[in-house]
Amino acid sequence: MRTTETCGKHPSGRALVICSALLVALAGLCTSAHAAMIAIAGSSASVEFTPLYASENTHDGLILETGDPTITYWMSNNGSGSIVYALDLTGAALGWTVDQFDLLNTKNRFFNDSATGTFTIQVSTDNGLSFGAPLVSSSLQHYDLGFQTESSFTSVAGVTHVRFAATAALPGKARSGLNEFQVFGTATAVPEPTTTLLLVAGVVGMGWIGRHRLR
Fold first, then answer.
1. What pLDDT, on a 0 to 100 scale, did the predictor assign at position 95?
2. Nearest-CA neighbor of 180 among 147, 134, 133?
3. Residue 197 falls in which region: left (phi positive, over 0), alpha (psi -120 to 50) or beta
4. Cα 122 to chain center, whole Å?
5. Which of 53, 69, 208, 210 counts the highest number of beta carbons within 10 A?
6. Coil, strand or helix at 144
7. What are the angstrom distances between the C-alpha of 198 and each of 19, 31, 88, 212?
8. Facing residues of 161 across strands?
9. How do residues 5-18 score in pLDDT, each as one tens digit?
10. How many of the other CB atoms lie within 10 Å of CB of 110?
């Protein structure tokens, strides 16, 4: 009786080596992506609204609002509760499966006269050409309460841009704004060259074993 050379039944030495290569390659594919905070490549203020302070301030990593003249947040003009901008995620990966947003409101330093009341978040999968229905439509808590996490939505794959819109200022505040906006997700997996070579070698080897058994 001839030994069956497969990964599932008493493999010979050659089949064992090939099966091991396939398993290593598949493990590499499974671990090539991981959930993380996405490094944002850039942002652009919408032509709909002109901001008082640049939207780039929402992903500079600076969250303290002190009495010094350093501006670390984004804010609309006086009397405007509505303001929009888009975040470009394409510099960090080919696309993202986005599953969480962390937002920190602003209060405009010691003035404490600015804050976003309500907002929406949309995503684009076509390089910012169009945005779908809002993934999030909510109220934003005060700056003093810290970051607000939004994750109760169905994750979207292939995201290239995220659009934040402050739809109204907090009642009693002169304008809306945002201190920090963090996006979390899993990058599109791109196999490393070594992983790809192992996978190809394993597939070719299994094909050779199959042909050898048929002789």
1. 87
2. 147
3. alpha
4. 12
5. 53
6. helix
7. 10, 15, 34, 21
8. 88, 124
9. 445 455 566 555 55
10. 9
Q: pLDDT value at position 104? A: 98
**Mean pLDDT, rounded, for 37-63:** 76
Instruction: Pull the structure tokens for residue 160.
Output: 């290239």
Residue 188 confidence (pLDDT) above 90: no
Among residues 12, 59, 58, 33, the alpha carbon closest in space to that of 189 is found at 33
The domain locations on the chain are 13-32+192-214, 35-187
Q: Which amino acid is at 16?
A: L
Which tokens sit at 95? 């696309």
Tokens coding 187: 């990058």
The answer, yes or no, to whether residue 65 has pLDDT greater than 70, is: yes
The tokens for 210 are 């199959």
Do residues 81 and 175 make contact, with C-beta atoms less than 8 angstroms apart?
A: yes
Q: Is 206 helix (H, G, I), strand (E, B) or coil?
A: helix
Structure tokens at 98: 């986005």
- Give percent above pLDDT 70 in the chain: 66
Distance CA 44, CA 37 (A): 20
3-state secondary structure of 121: strand
The angle, 0 to 180 degrees and rounded to 10, between the axes of the packed helices 193-214 and 13-30 is: 150
Domain 35-187, CATH: 2.60.120.260
Q: Which residue has the tokens 């493990």?
A: 27
